Amino acid sequence: MRADRRVGGRRRGAPAGRSAAGRAHDRGANRGSRGSSHRDHGGGTLVARAGGRARDRDGSLEARHVIVVAIETSTPQVSVAIGTEQEILGRIQVAGRARQESVAPALERLLGWTGVDLGQVGGVAVGIGPGLFTGLRVGVQTAKTLAQVTRAMILGFTSLDALAYPVRFTSRRILAVVDGRRGEVFSAIYSAVPGGVMRGSEYAISTPDHLAADLEALPGDVLAVGDGAILYRDVLTEQRGGGLEIASPAFAHPDAASLVELAAPRFLREEHDRLFDVAPLYLRKSDAEIAWDRRTGDP
């Protein structure tokens, strides 16, 4: 498990079929994790652009691209995207009560729109939370099934990393906040660095009041992003006062397109997770587990 997360920049070009990196996964599906750091809940993780392209065994730059399918279902807005390290080929976002059931139809529609055959997919990126329980289970299981069927590589990314990454061009500290419901929020703090962001805190769950108290002690100006920041705007701004801005609703939810950007260059470098290691990051017990604990008397 690496401490840094480097991501390649985009360049224009038409997508090709499955790359050598994707074929390498067939040979190494049972090898250890080669790059994902989402299981590291501590601080100091770099979410940034990669500095180079993958190379063939003869040392030449890899000429083909990995086609990536990305699935993000950790919040009330579900998104599915297809792309390469050079461009986003297509994206669908769905909100509403039937959003979890829309993942498979959205993927099928995207494949048709983009002209990508399922057999061309070389990598699958999935949001692992923290977020909503049902959505996370559906998204992670769909991604793992897709990776298994296509023998593609897979990488999991947290919803908070995916929230912070699109606002990486700010000079302020970034506070990513996801509404956890039950009067709680999931959060993490980031600093902008060249090409990406550096996470400087653990992934945390707290009440908005506790988060506001922690925010008050944070030096410098802060950009808060995510549906949790928007929902609890008054709580955060009242205690913090000046020096806090709430990002636009356009950035309220982690986006599958960001997962494509984060994953594609790493797939080119043959960095991937082991399939059985990809699991939702919940940070707390589900309602069913809490009810069971109450019935059994467990703390």
Fold topology:
Layout: E1 4-6, H1 20-27, E2 45-48, E3 67-72, E4 77-83, E5 88-95, H2 103-114, E6 121-127, H3 133-150, E7 153-157, H4 159-164, E8 173-181, E9 184-193, E10 196-199, E11 204-206, H5 208-216, E12 222-225, H6 227-231, H7 233-240, E13 244-246, H8 256-268, H9 287-296
Parallel strand pairs: 1-2, 3-6, 6-7, 8-12, 12-13
Antiparallel strand pairs: 2-10, 3-4, 4-5, 8-9, 9-10, 9-11
Write up what this structure looks like.
The protein has 299 residues and is of the alpha/beta class. The chain folds into two domains: 4-162 and 254-282, 2-Layer Sandwich (Nucleotidyltransferase, domain 5), CATH 3.30.420.40; 170-251, Nucleotidyltransferase, domain 5 (2-Layer Sandwich). The protein has helices spanning 20-27, 103-114, 133-150, 159-164, 208-216, 227-231, 233-240, 256-268, 287-296; strands at 4-6, 45-48, 67-72, 77-83, 88-95, 121-127, 153-157, 173-181, 184-193, 196-199, 204-206, 222-225, 244-246. α1 (20-27) links the parallel β1 (4-6) and β2 (45-48). The chain is globular. Mean pLDDT is 81; it is low at 1-39, 51-63 and 288-293.
Main attributes of the structure:
Nucleotidyltransferase, domain 5; 8-stranded mixed β-sheet; alpha/beta; 5-stranded mixed β-sheet; 9 helices; single chain; 299 residues
